[in-house]
Amino acid sequence: MSSGIRRRSLLSAAALGSTAASLGLSVPASAQPVLGTKPSAATLPAEDGYDLWLRYRRVEDPGQLERYRAALGTLVWQGGGPLQQSAVEELGRGLTGLLGTRVAPRISAPSPAALVVGTAKSSALIRELVPAADLAELGDEGYVVRRVTRRGKHFTVVAAHADRGVLYGAFHLLRLVQTRRPLEQVDLMERPATPLRMANHWDNDDGSIERGYAGRSFFDWEKLPQLDTRYTDYARVLASLSINGAVINNVNTPADYLAEPFLTKLAALAGVLRRYGVALYVTANFAAPIDLGGLDTADPFDPGVRGWWTKQAAEIYGKIEDFGGFLVKANSEGRPGPLDYGRTHADGANLLAGALRPYGGIVMWRAFVHDSDEKWDRQAYLDFTPLDGKFAHNAVVQIKNGPIDFQVREPAHPLFGSLPRTNSMIELQVTQEYTGHATHLCYLVPQWKEVLDFDTLKAGEGSTVARVVTGRVHSYTHFGFAGVMNFGDARNWTGSHLAAANTHGYGRLAWNPDLSAQDLAAEWTRMTFGNDPRVVKTVSALLLDSWHTYEDYTSPLGTGYLTHPPDASVAGHFDPSPTTTTQFHTSDRAGIGYDRTTATGDGFTELYAPATRDAYESPANCPEELLLFLHHVPYTHRLASGTTVIQHIYDTHFSGAARVADMRTEWEGLRRRVDHRRFTDVHRQLGEQITEAAKWRDTLVAYWFDLSRIRDERRAWLQAIVAPADTVLLGGERNELPVQVLNATGSGLRTVTTLDVPEGWRSEEAAAYVASREGQTVKMPVVPPPTPALATLHARPRSGAVPVLDASLRSLAKAVVVPPAARCVHALDAGPDSAPVLKDYARLSPSSGWHEGAGFGWVGNTPDATDTGLFDVVRRDYVRDSAPAVLRLKLPAGRCTAHLLTGDPNTLNRSLIVRVDGIERARSEQLDGREFTWLRIPLDGGSSGREVDLELSAKEDETWHLSACVVVADGPA
Ligand code: GCU
Question: Where in the numbering of this chain does the Glycosyl hydrolase family 67 C-terminal domain appear (predicted)?
Fold first, then answer.
C-alpha cells in the first residue's frame, strides 16, 4: 500500500526496469540509498497508518541488509496464474522497499543466490529444488519457505502445490524480513488449520457500519462497479493474513444484495478479491423471496420458495462464478427466519444450502439467536442441539465465542463440542463493540486464546474449542473462523492505529490458533512500528496488558453488560450505564451477579460437560474471573485472596484506571522512536482513554457503593447522583434539581454542592450534612434562560479535601429546557394520547386533527406515535411517520419562532425536515440514540395573525420524529 508514497529517489527511479513498471509498482521512499543514520523522530517519515502492517521500510542494519540483499535481491519467477502474479507483485513491492534496491522478477537465476517462487506446475526450478512429495502435502493453501543449496547456489524458495499457497508464502517471506528473521537456515512448512477464514463486515448499503468505529464503509455502492485502489489494498491486507473469504454486508440486511443492481457491483468487487484468493460472500435476508421475489411466503418447504432460491443462486453464479455463499442471521433480534413458518433452523439453512450446492457454495448459519434477555445465555444451545446432524453438508453453524454477545468476559459458548454432527465455526468480534470502540486500547487476542484453549471435554479431554473449530474433534466438512471486522474508510482503516493489532491477530489465529498472543503482539508491532527493541517491548506490553486493564476498570469478575442499553447507533455500548442494564447484572442491595446455576439460577451451567458444570456450579470452584457471570453473591463474599467482592471491585476500578495513565507514560517513552504523526495520534487516543477510564471507574464505583453502602477500605470519597438524570427544566423559571450527595467516608461531613451550568444560567449552591455511608438529597436551584435548549449539568459536591468521584456519569443531568406553557403561543408535547403530557402543555397526538378552536392540528395525513417509556415526560414519546404530515398552527400578529424538538431516547434518529410554504426551513442531522436537537424556525403572523402550515418530512425511506413543538412570540427588537 505504498500508494501514499509516490516519492522516488533519482537513483532508484533510474534503476526501475520495465517489469516493475508493467507490474505497476511504485518504489517506497525507503528504497533510497542507505545513509547509515540511526532513525530518530526527525528523520522518520510521517505515516498515516494506511499501510497497516504491510510497511516495507528499508532494513536499517547494514550487515543484515547486505545478507538480505544477497539472498533476495534476485527474484526468479517462471510464470503462473493471477494469484502468483499478485504474489510476485507484492514481493517486488515489499523487497524493493525492504532492501532499498529494485527487485523485479526474472525467469532464470544467474547470480549465486536467488529467491525462487512458484509451484511445481509452473516452474521447472521449483521442480528441481523441492521434492514433489513435499509439495503434495501442502494442499491448496499451504507452502514451504526454505533455503536450498544446489550447484553452489543458495536459493530461498517459496513453493506451493497451488497458486494460493505461493501468495501466502510470499507474504510469509516478507513478514520474516519485516521482523528481521535470519534466512540462512529457513525451513518452514505451513498449512492452515481451517479452510474457512472469514472477514465479516457489518456494513450497510447507505455507507453506515453497524458497530463500526473507523468512519464510514469503504464499499461505495453508488460508485461500484467502478473500482478504487482501496479495494485492491483491502484484498492485499486480507491475503497478508491469509483470510480467504469476505462477507461484505451486515448480518442485519435487506434482501437487495441478492439481485441487480447489486450483482454487477458485487461481481466487480469479487474480481478484485479473486486476485488475492478471497471469495466474496453476502448475507442473505431469509425473507428475500417475499421482498425481492414477490412471493407471499418464505417458508422453506414451499416449492415456490425453493424455486426462487434456486433461480437466484443461478443468477448469482452466472455473474460471480467463484461466489462463496451466504451468511444468515435468522429468527434473532427481529430478523425473519424459518421459525416464522414453524420450521427449524436446519430447514432454513438446508433450503439455502440446496440452492448453493450445485456450485460448491456454502451457508454459514448463525447460532446467535437472541429473542429474550432471560433466555439469552441458553437459547442457542436449546435451539441448535436438537438439530445436530440435520444440517446439510454444505451448511456450517457460526457460533459466537460466548453465549451472550462479545462481552469483556464470557465463558466459551456451550455449543462448542455439542454439535458432533453439525459443521461448526467460531465467530469472534474484531471490532470492539463492548470493549471500548476505537478509543480504548483493548487487544483481544489473549481473550480469544482463552476461549480457543477452553477444553469443552465434550468428546473427552483435549476437545478444546480450537480443536473443535479446526475440525480435529469431529469429522466436519466445513469449519473455521469468522471475524466481525473493524475496518472503515478511516485513512488508517481501523480508526485507531493500535486497533489494527486485533485485525492482524484475528487473521493470524484463524490460520494457526496455536500462535501465542505474545508472538502475535510482537510480530504486529515489528511490522507496524519497526524493530527497535524498546518499541517492540513497550508496544507488546501495552497490547498484552490492555484487555485485563479494560476489564479491571469496566467489569471485573464477569459482571457483564454494563454498557448503556442496546441501540444501533455508533455510540452504542460505549459508556457505562449500570442503572439501565440491571436485567443483565442483577445487582441489588443484597448482592451482585447473575445466578446461572442449575441449583438456584437459570440452569445455564447444565449445558457444559459434567466436570465443567460442577466447577461452574460452585462459587468456590468456578474461575474467579467468571464468578459474577455465574453467581449472585453477597458483596462481602470472599475471593481466594481473602478480599471481599466489593473491595475487589473498588480496587480493580482504581488500579485499572490508574494503569491507563501509566500506559500513556510508557508510550511517551517512544517519542523519538515512532514517527511523529502516529506517535501523536496514539498519544491523543490514550489521553481520551484516560478520561473514559475515569468515567467508568467513578460511575461504577459510585453505583456499587450506592447499592451496597459498604465503604472502600482503602479510599474515601464523596459522590453525587442526579436522579432522574434526564429531566425537563422550565426556561426563565426557578427549578429545583434533586441531587443526592453520598458520603463514602468514615465520618459525617458538612457538604456543599454546586452545579456546573452553561453561560447565561443561574444556580445556587446547596449545603447539607451527610452522615457516613448515607445519602442526602439536596434541591439545587437552577434558572435556565427562557429559550428552548438542551444542556448537561454537572453536580459537584465537596467537603474540605475529601476526594470526589467527579467523573461519574451519574453526577450529570441531561436537561431539556422548555418555556412554561403560559409564555408560549403554542406549547405542544407530542406523543400518543395514552402517554403523560408535560404540565400545562397540550397533547399533540395522531388524533389532533386541525380545528380552529384548538389553534393547531394535522391537516391531511396524520402521523403515528410512540411512547418509549424512557427519559423525561417530553422526550420519552413522539409522533413519527415516513410520509410527510402537515401541522397547521394559528399565529397571532407579529413575529414569533417555532422550536421543534426531535430525537429518540432509544435508537438513532433520522433527519426531520421542515418546510413552510414549500420552502425548506430547517433540517436536523441524523442523531445517535439518546441525542436530541431543537430546530428553530422564525415565523411571521403578519399584522393580524394567520395560519401557517409546517410540513414535516424525512428523506426517502426514512422516518421523522417530533417530540415537542413550542411557538413563542419574539420580544420587541
Ligand atoms: C449484537 C450487536 C448487534 C448485532 C448482533 C448480531 O447484538 O449489538 O448490532 O446485530 O450482535 O451479532 O447479530
Answer: 494-714
- Asked whether the predicted pLDDT for residue 808 surpasses 90, the reply is yes
- Grid cell for residue 448: 480469544
**Bridge-partner residues for 710, per DSSP?**
none
For ligand 1, atom 10, the nearest C-alpha belongs to 252
Order the strands of the 864-867 sheet from edge to edge: 864-867, 877-881, 960-962
Query: Domains in the chain, start-ordered, CATH in brackets?
Result: 13-190 (3.30.379.10), 196-515 (3.20.20.80), 555-594+632-708 (3.90.1330.10), 718-815 (2.60.40.10), 819-969 (2.60.120.430)
Ligand 1 proximity of 210 Cβ (cutoff 6 Å):
yes
Which H/E stretch holds residue 545?
helix 533-554
pLDDT in tens, 43-101: 678 899 999 999 999 999 999 999 999 999 999 999 999 999 999 999 999 999 999 99
**Residue 495 backbone phi and psi in degrees, to 5:** 80, -30
Ligand 1 centroid from CA 566, angstroms? 9
Q: Which of 253, 335, 405, 928 to mutate to test the pocket of ligand 1 (most atoms within 8 A of CB)?
A: 405
CA 311 – CA 399 distance, rounded (Å): 29
| Averaged pLDDT, 180-202 | 98
Catalytic residues: 333, 405, 433
> Position 752: which residue type?
V
* pLDDT of the residue at 14: 29
Q: Taking CA 817 as the corner, what is the angle to CA 814 and CA 821, rounded to the nearest 5 degrees?
A: 145
Q: 957: pLDDT confidence band, cut at 50, 70 and 90?
A: confident
Please give the full DSSP string across 93-162, using - where no structure is assigned: HHHHHHHTS---EESS--SSEEEEEEETTT-HHHHHHS-HHHHHTTTTT-EEEEEEEETTEEEEEEEESS
Q: How much is the pTM?
A: 0.92
Report the alpha-carbon angle 5-179-161, nearest 5: 95
Q: Is the CB of 405 under 6 A from ligand 1?
A: yes
Cα distance between residue 617 and residue 624, in whole Å: 12
For residue 211 and ligand 1, the question of a CB distance below 6 A is answered with yes
Helix (H) or strand (E) holding 411: none
- The answer to whether 968 and 825 have CB atoms below 8 angstroms apart is yes
459 Cα to the center of ligand 1, angstroms: 30
Minimum-distance ligand 1 atom for the alpha carbon of 400: 12
pLDDT at 261: 97
Distance between CA atoms of residues 208 and 215, nearest Å: 8
Check if 329 has its Cβ closer than 6 Å to any atom of ligand 1: yes
DSSP character for 480?
Answer: E
Task: Write the CB contacts of 235 (distance below 8 Å, at least 6 apart in sequence).
Answer: 272, 273, 275, 276, 278
Strands of 749-756's sheet in order across: 726-730, 812-818, 789-798, 749-756, 766-770
Q: Is the CB of 55 under 6 A from ligand 1?
A: no
Cα 215 to middle of ligand 1, angstroms: 18
Q: 717-774, pLDDT tens digit by residue? A: 999 999 889 999 999 999 999 999 999 999 999 999 999 999 999 999 999 999 999 9
- Residue 39 confidence class, pLDDT cut points 50, 70, 90: low
C-alpha cell read off for 720: 453525587
Whole-angstrom distance, CA of residue 158 vs CA of residue 142:
11
| Neighbour tally for 421: CB within 10 Å | 12
Secondary structure of residue 763 in the 3-state scheme: strand
Query: 367: Cβ below 6 Å to ligand 1?
Result: no
Could you tell me if the CB of 634 is within 6 A of ligand 1?
Answer: no
Name the residue among 684, 696, 682, 430 with its Cα closest to residue 538: 682
Dist. CA 471–CA 396, nearest whole Å: 12
Ligand 1 atom having least distance to the Cα of 568: 9
Give dist(CA 75, CA 107) in Å, integer.
8
